[in-house]
Design brief:
Elements (H helix, E strand, L loop, with lengths): L26 E16 L2 E10 L6 E3 L1 H13 L4 H4 L9 E7 L3 E2 L2 E2 L2 E4 L11 H9 L4 H9 L3 H5 L1 H13 L2
Helix pairs in contact: 3-6
Length: 173
C-alpha cells in the first residue's frame, strides 16, 4: 500500500491510547478494570505502570498520577472516602471523559497528553450478574455504599441484589 500525504499519526505503532487519539473529539469510556504491572509493554517499551482497560472497544490507557487523582476526586464526589477512592476495584463501572490536554509535559517538554474531565458522568447500568459481582467485591461498608450508588433504580429493586446488599450491610463495618 502507498498513500500520498497521509496523516502523520495515522500509522504510528501504538498499543495504548495517547493524546493524539483525542485531538478531534473527547471519548467517554467505562472502566472495566485497572491493573498495575512492572512489565507492561507500552508502545514497544517495558514499563512499570497502571493500565485501565475499558468496556468499549478501544486501546487500554496508561494512567499517570494526575489522572489517577482525577478519578479519585470523581469517586469522592460519589460519596467514596479518600481511602476507598484509591482502591482501583472501586473504579470498575465508572464512566470517564478523556480529552486532549495541551499543557501536559513529558521529560520536561510540553507534549500534550490525555486528561480526564473532573466530573461525574451518568450512572452506569450494570447487568444483574455484574452488579452482584461488584457488590461481592466490597470489603467495607464505605465501598458497599459507593458501589450501591452506581446501580440503576431497576437494579436496586432487583430482589437478589437487594438481598445481597442487606446481607453485606450487616456483615461489613
Amino acid at each position: 500500500m502507498r498513500e500520498e500525504n497521509p496523516n502523520s499519526a495515522a500509522y504510528r505503532k501504538s498499543t495504548h491510547l495517547a493524546g493524539v487519539d483525542l485531538l478531534e473529539k473527547n471519548l467517554t469510556l467505562t472502566i472495566k478494570k485497572c491493573i498495575y504491572a512492572t512489565d507492561l509493554v507500552v508502545n514497544g517499551k517495558v514499563q512499570a505502570c497502571y493500565e485501565i482497560q475499558f468496556e468499549e472497544d478501544v486501546k487500554p490507557m496508561v494512567v499517570n498520577s494526575t489522572n489517577r487523582k482525577t478519578i479519585n476526586k470523581i469517586l469522592q464526589s460519589k460519596g467514596f472516602s479518600k481511602g476507598d477512592s484509591l482502591a482501583t476495584i472501586n473504579w470498575i463501572g465508572l464512566q470517564i471523559e478523556l480529552y486532549f490536554e495541551e499543557n501536559r509535559s513529558f521529560a520536561g517538554e510540553k507534549t500534550g497528553g490525555i486528561g480526564i474531565v473532573e466530573k461525574l458522568i451518568e450512572v452506569v447500568k450494570l447487568e444483574t450478574k455484574s452488579a452482584i459481582d461488584a457488590l461481592n467485591l466490597c470489603t467495607t461498608a464505605e465501598q458497599l455504599k459507593g458501589t450501591w450508588g452506581i446501580l440503576t433504580a431497576d437494579e436496586k429493586k432487583n430482589a437478589e441484589i437487594m438481598a445481597l446488599k442487606d446481607k453485606l450491610k450487616t456483615t461489613l463495618k
